[in-house]
Amino acid sequence: ESDGWIKKISSQEAAYLLLGLLIHDIGMLSQDVKYIPAQQRSKYIKGSSDIANWVRRTHVIRIEGLMKHILDDYIKKDSKLEIHLNVIIGMASSHDKWPWQQGFVSCHDEIRELNLIESRIAALNAIIAVCDLLDEDSNRCDTIVLMKHHHGTVENMAHWIRHALTKEVIGVSNQEVTVIFRSITSEIPNFEMVYRALRNHYRLVKLYN
Length: 209
Hints:
This protein is mainly alpha-helical. Helices cover 51% and strands 7% of the residues.
């Protein structure tokens, strides 16, 4: 807010942004293959026996099916709801892409129908992506318990460790991101590589400038 961007968006844009943020990771709460679009199901079904990695890998592609299943009764009562929902789902799904990739802004017809501006939707999508990247602090999970009692993959453990070492994300101000890391002893092999990886992860936010 200190950078002033929040005062420059309309109430309509703010509503779509808020809803996009709320549902952008909803696919992480579901393990059901049926929410993958039928024409893409064979592509994404591989690896579904490894639940943790499969859920993470497919959580975005399943957002639309999951949300429309949840809101099916409301969609049937109000046909216009789906137009708004498509834009919100498109925004929520955008955090799986880089700004220069095709599909970072989707639902072009709906955006025009709602008198929205694609370049502004792209900016809102960038905000969702940055929020997703910065949602990494140690409050996300109990890393010690997970490492001790869960047999996660290397990727799972990397996420858990990143959460544990991120003490606090202060936020973005004046186009700068401030993150406080926990310190670990320099006696641990390759400890500098760990912090270099953490810094590189958070520096990805610059790609959405």
